[in-house]
Every structure is written in structure tokens, then in C-alpha cells.
Amino acid sequence: MAETAHPTDAPHRGGKAVGISIAAAVGGFLFGFDSSVINGAVDALGSHFHLGSFLSGFVVSIALLGCAVGAWYAGRLADSWGRRRVMVLGAVMFIISSIGSATAFSVPDLMVWRVVGGLAIGIASVIAPAYISEVAPAKGRGALGSLQQLAITVGQLVVLSSNKGLAGAAGGASQNLWFGMAAWRWMFLVGVIPALVYGLLALLIPESPRYLVLKGEYGKAAGVLGRVTGESDPEGKVAQIRETLDKEHRSSFADIRGKRFGLHPLVWVGIIMAAFQQLVGINAIFYYSTTLWKSVGFSESSSFTTSVITAGINVVMTVVAMLFVDRVGRRRLLTIGSIGMFLSLLLTAVAFSQQHGSGDHVSLPGPYGPLALVGANAFVVFFALSWGPILWIMLAEMFPNRMRAMALAIGTASNWIFNFIVTFAFEPMTRQVGLSWLYGTFAFFALASFFFVRGKVPETKQRELESMTGETYQRRTAGQTPSAH
Predict the structure, then answer these.
(1) Segments forming the whole domain that contains residue 133
(2) Cβ of 477: how many Cβ atoms within 10 Å?
(3) Which strand (E) or helix (H) includes residue 115?
(4) How far apart are CA 404 and CA 409, in angstroms?
């Protein structure tokens, strides 16, 4: 663990950083898998358990409450147990959830397993970006941090493709497939495979050097820094980490307090950014896209195909974001994304303003069906280019070392809470006010996010984590735009 770093080993060490980051990002794959597995099963669940729109929305969204709780406690567990052990815990819980959801015999039973899965995904959503930010070198941290969102999008694409294949093989999500089990049950059961992979990889990767320093294991921390990040002076880096950890507050709720509204201004920035990422309505697309496209005239098979195409677009544009995030900067991509999302969602809202019918009998006349499809997919393009990956990069980067785990947990919990609100409200609100008003509301939040980024979000491009003290930002929150320096 205490190997000496040599300059000639730099490419090899860079490859190790990428490999380790990919392994940690499998937690993001589970995040994406769980967030979209319900997409293909929601109608079949409604038929099997005789769910109304309210209960159907609650079954879909209750996992997100578990996610919020898991995210809240993940930071504390990570500081107590270490990043790797918490990853293993999340993998075990996801396996239990997948098996339980696949064999559920009643609505309360299904809800319990959905919550367990939510706890697991909440843990993974915090630990993966935190770990990657702590092992990645500053110059490539944006791209490596984007692996979390890329893994989420790949997880969504894989599970939507899996759902389509299983439903197609059975002749419908409600039809029996193998061993007398309906296709929707197999949709959940497939999740055991990536969870096993995640648990195994978590056992093989090294512990975070910042956690090792926190626990006083300086030799091991220097070894990880030398072998993985390509640090030319690992002992000096350990000393720098020790200094920042000594200066910063301990990771507890009391230590993220600030003078305004009870919390440090940066923590509020993280909370509001996490809220905006959900309030633009991205998971209205990924949780309900199959149901949505069926409601406007697509067949079940075509709806599954359209959802897979949307997920594929999400993956491709996330890769594009990875290529540009360290060149263009976080704030610039966020503002581009906000404007693009606003225009796309406005187009979608206009298309749905022409809908005929209501409830399960909605149709879009003439060109408005294709227009809604274009608007929704353009929205996904701009989201994947910006707010999708960059939120997780920023939450992992912008906080001081001592408060990082706690602040990231709070920000992630905020993300899951607003995810729950949007997901739970989407189906009943579709019936009450219509899709045009809903997408118009999402467009409003996209526009609001542009002004928030311009006024409050700091730039963290190519800055060392140890330089994120939070002091400069706190001095500049009296109405001025925050600076990165």
C-alpha cells in the first residue's frame, strides 16, 4: 500500500484512476436501473394489484423516500465505516429489494421492498460521486465525476432495453414468461446481476485516501495516492489533506450551520441545485415515458421502443458532457442546459396544449404528436449535456473536506425528496391539470435554474479539493456572484 510513485508510471496510474472510478460508478448504474425499472412495470402493476392513479403514483415514488433516507445517512456511515464497506451494504440491500419486489404478493409487501431498494440507491447515489472525487486527479475530475451520471444513463438504457425484451418475449408486461412468473416480476429480478457485480467490485477497489487520512492511516493513504492518482509527492499530499481536515469542521449537522437560514451558503446552493435538477421534470420522462407515449396513441411495443431511444440519447449526450466539462467549465454548461431545457419543455407544453381527451384516452392531432416527441427528446439532450452529470460533480467538489460527506448527503437527500414530489404528483396532476400545464411548469423551473446558476453557483473546474474552503464563497454571499477563487 505504500508503493513509491514514479513519473514513468503516470499512464498506468491514470488508467487505474479510471478503472477504480468506473468500478465505483456501478453504484450509479444501480441508481439508473432502479429509477427506470418501474417504467415498464407500472401499468402491469396497476392491473395486477388494481391500483388507482393515487396508489399507482405512490408505489412508483415510495422508493424515493427510501432514497432520501439512505442518502441522508450515507455520509455518516461513510465517515464511520469507510466508503467501500458502505458500497457493499448498498449492494446487499439492492439484491434483497430486487428479489422481494419480484416475488411481492400484495401492495404493502411491494412497498416494503421498494423502500429497501430506495435505501440502497440513496446510499449509492452519495458514495459513488464522493469516492470518485476523492480518488480522481483535479485535471480529470470533471470527466471522471461524470462517470456517475453516465452510469445512471447506461443503467436506464439497459433496464429499458431489458424491459422491452422481457415484455416482448412474454407478449406483454402482464403476461407470464418463465416458471409461471409474469414479465414484470422478471424486470425486477434482473437487478440482482448488477448488484452482485457492484458488491464484488467494492471489495476489490482501494479505500479513499481522504478517509484513510481521517482515520490516521497515513501510509496507506500515501500508497493509494501514489498508485492511483499519479501524485508525484504522495506524502506531501497527505500532509495537505491532514492540514485541511484539521482546519475544517467535523462532518456533523452542527458544523454546516451558517448565519443565514441556519446553514452554510454552499449547503443551500447544493440543496437548491439538487431541487432544480428534479423540478425540471426529468423523471417524469424516465418513470412514465412508456405510459406517456401509450397515452398519446403509441402501441405498447412502440412505447417501449421510444423509451429505449430516449435513454440512448441520454447516454450519448452524457458522454459529450464528459468530453467538455473540464474544458468549458461547470457553470457554462449548466447555463446552456437551462436555456435548452426551457425551450424544449416549452415546445412540449405547446404540443400537449392541443391534446384531445383526458385520462387514459389522450391523443395529439396532426403534427403535435411528433412535436411532443421532438420536444421531450431535445429536453433529454440538454439535460444530459448539463444538469444530469454536473449536479453530481458539483455536489462532490464544491464543499470543504470536513463538511463534504454531510453536505453531499443533504444535497442528495434534497434531490430524492424533490424526485418523490415530482414523481408522486405527476400522474394525478396529469389528470387534474393536463400535460400542457405540467410541462409549462417544468419549463418555468428550467428558466429559473438559469438565473440561479448565474447568481449563486461557483466554478470548480480544475481546482484541488483541498482548496475548497468555502470561506471566499461565504464572504461573497451578500448579493454578489460567487467566485471560484
Answers:
(1) 7-475
(2) 18
(3) helix 107-135
(4) 8
Name the nearest CA neighbour of 131 among 199, 78, 198.
78
Q: Confirm whether 284 is domain-assigned.
A: yes
DSSP 226: I
Bridge partner list, 363: 356
Residue 42: CATH number of its domain: 1.20.1250.20
* CA distance linking residue 124 with residue 63, whole number of Å: 14
- Of 476, 464, 471, nearest to 248 by C-alpha is 471
Q: Is this structure's pTM higher than 0.70?
A: no
**Residue 269, all three cell numbers:** 446552493
Among 171, 191, 170, 192, residue whose Cα is nearest residue 181: 170
Q: Which residue, chain included where needed, has cell 403534427?
A: 367
What is the tens place of the pLDDT at every residue in 215-239? 888 888 888 777 776 667 778 878 8
Q: Is residue 264 part of a domain?
A: yes
No. of helices (H) and no. of strands (E), the chain: 19, 2
Does any domain span residue 485? no
Q: What is the pLDDT of residues 171-224, one digit of tens each?
A: 777 777 788 788 878 888 888 998 898 889 888 888 888 888 888 888 888 887
What is the number of domains present in the chain?
1
In a domain? residue 260: yes
